[in-house]
Amino acid sequence: MTLHANLIGGEWVGGEAVPNVNPANTAEVVGEYARATAADAGAAIAAAKAAFPAWSRSGPLERHAVLSKAAAEILARKEELGTLLSREEGKTLAEGIGETIRAAQIFDFFAGECLRLTGEILPSVRPGVGVEITREAVGPVGLITPWNFPIAIPAWKIAPALAWGNTVVIKPADLVPGCAWALADILHRAGLPKGVLNLVMGKGSVVGQAILDSPDIRAVSFTGSVGTGRRVAEASVKAMRKFQLEMGGKNPMVVLDDADLEVAVDACLNGAFFSTGQRCTASSRLIVQDGIHDRFVARLKERMEALVIGDPLDKATQIGPVVDAGQLEQDEKYIAIGRDEGAELVGGARVKKATEGFFLAPALFVGATNAMRVSREEIFGPVASVIRVKDYDEALAVANDTDFGLSAGICTTSLKHATHFKRNSQAGMVMVNLATAGVDFHVPFGGSKGSSFGPREQGRYAAEFYTTVKTAYTAAG
After folding, report:
1. Annotated active-site positions, please?
2. Which pLDDT band holds residue 155 (cuts at 50, 70, 90)?
3. What pLDDT, in 10s, does the model give residues 92-130?
4. 43 burial class (0-12, 13-18, 19+ CB within 10 angstroms)?
5. Residues 6+ apart with CB under 8 A from 247
6. Which of 157, 179, 167, 272 has the alpha carbon at shortest distance from 224?
7. What per-residue confidence (pLDDT) applies to 365?
8. For residue 72, is pLDDT > 80?
């Protein structure tokens, strides 16, 4: 089997071969990928530092050409790359292809941003003095990405970093190196100069730590767990570098008595269980008003029982496997906790298929309270709690009673309640009659409280992280 090497300084560098295993069929190896050492990470950082002066001063057409060419290739290969994504992460093929298309759209958007670089010219308060305000690249940046969106999240970090003239060292999640490797290969062949993009695959404790320990990395963008995010923050403060964190969520979906029942059930089913619930924006707390509660639960149970769980490459499949044995163990641990806490469990059993894989039926806890661990701690699997409330005011209070604040939703036909919820929800993203999961590529992404820290990702707001502002004064004459 061909070894997929790390990309360091424009060269493919081998290393210890690690199998990339299909979570729907553990007997199948998707590919073998080189595991980088701390020395490899150091070499990648050095290459990024060396390449920064030239790339940061490159013209907008050069950057545009690379990102535009990458976008076109990703889109042309959407079925191939989507299949790779589904095989290594476990999403359904439709979700894998959809995520790949989104990655292409992200690169296309930021290719355009290369040609839309702006600044300001202002008069000084002092006569005869002019002021220019410009944005410049930050420097070599470290990107640490998670396993749940193996092509979209690397894309939405790499594309703006390159568009605004930064050089990159990216460490993808150890579980899903395939899509990140494919992106690096595409960008390498699209004409990036040596050292502008460096891919180092491997363990977070080795490669990720090397990135955090390096004084030459001037910004770190991280998506992952709260615990690791705190380590990124601590290391970055010591290094006096910029850092951006996207971490956990315990996202509420409020369903009011006046909601359209089918709209509400669709939004909750999608938000809680699609992508096997492995989304930081998943609806893990379903906060349902008393008058609609019983009908909502009955209908959601019906829809859950009809879900097709199986091989993600089978077009009939709606729910694929969880990503690995460790995640399956964590999901089952929380299912046991929820039962011990006194909630009624619907679903949540392992599913036997023709191949050995990590298949789990979606789990719903009915009769849960917001004080239960299953309602407060992020599980990151197809597990949701139903919490009954008496009215809108209680629903809003429960929705905001969390350490997280990434995404929140409300299902209602009341303009009054929808408007009030959008203004008073303590979340960075709010959905009305839509699933809490699912955002556009051209608008800002991020949350509040324990979910996010630093400038938003995606869209033009990404410039706040990947650039620094310079103010220059010029005296006339």
Report:
1. 246, 280
2. very high
3. 999 999 999 999 999 999 999 999 989 999 999 999 999
4. buried
5. 223, 224, 225, 226, 229, 280, 450, 451, 452, 453
6. 157
7. 98
8. yes
Nearest to 197 by CA among 6, 62, 393: 6
Indicate the domain borders of the chain: 3-247+451-475, 251-432
The distance between the two most distant Cα atoms of the chain, rounded to a whole number of Å, is 81
Question: Is residue 184 scored above 80 in pLDDT?
Answer: yes
Check whether 345 has a pLDDT greater than 80: yes
Average pLDDT (277-305) is: 98
Those residues with Cβ within 8 angstroms of residue 449's Cβ, 6 or more apart along the chain or in another chain: 402, 403, 404, 405, 426
pTM over 0.90: yes
d(CA 299, CA 261): 8
CATH 3.40.50.300 fits 251-432, yes or no: no
Written as one letter, the residue type at 84 is L
Instruction: Say how far apart CA 34 and CA 20 lie, in whole Å.
Output: 10
Q: Which of 8, 4, 446, 334 is nearest to 194 (CA)?
A: 8
Alpha carbons 157 and 31: distance in angstroms, whole number: 24
Q: How far is CA 138 from the centre of its chain?
A: 22
3-247+451-475, what's its fold?
Aldehyde Dehydrogenase; Chain A, domain 1 (3.40.605)
Please name which of 78, 136, 149 lies closest in space to residue 108, comparing C-alpha atoms.
78
Query: Cα(3)–Cα(244) distance, rounded to whole angstroms?
Result: 32
Residue positions counted in the chain: 477
Share of the chain above pLDDT 70, in %: 100
- Is-same-fold flag (3-247+451-475; 251-432)? no
For residues 87, 89, 94 and 96, what is the CA-based torsion angle, rounded to 10 degrees?
-100
Query: Does the structure show a pLDDT above 80 at 263?
Result: yes
Fill in the amino acid letter for 9: G
At 389 the pLDDT is: 98
Phi then psi for residue 13, to 5 deg, are -115, 125
Residue 476: which pLDDT band, with cuts at 50, 70 and 90? confident
- Give the position of tokens 């990036």: 192
- Residue 94: partners with Cβ closer than 8 Å, 6 or more residues away: 315
